[in-house]
Predict the structure.
Amino acid sequence: MDEFKAFNIEREKHLRTAVPVLKDAYAAHERKLVDSRHYGDHIWVFGDIVAVHFIEEAFTPKGMLNLKAVKPFLHLRPDCYVSADRKCVNFRQGGT
């Protein structure tokens, strides 16, 4: 599933790698692959950070996510995201 297409997610131009970067992400980083290992049904990927993207207004002066200024969008599983604020929780299924 192409999650960018399924959820109409815009991409930001990457700086140092060819990885996709979420345009509206409060923070993201690009990494150079160092190693990857299989553990059960998961693959753990390790890398060196080579570029950082962030929206300054989304963070407090101490570097914490400012929950008064942003509404986090969380990835629960491949076809489901959830956003939350102090008043409600919104689910979004793939293709809707």
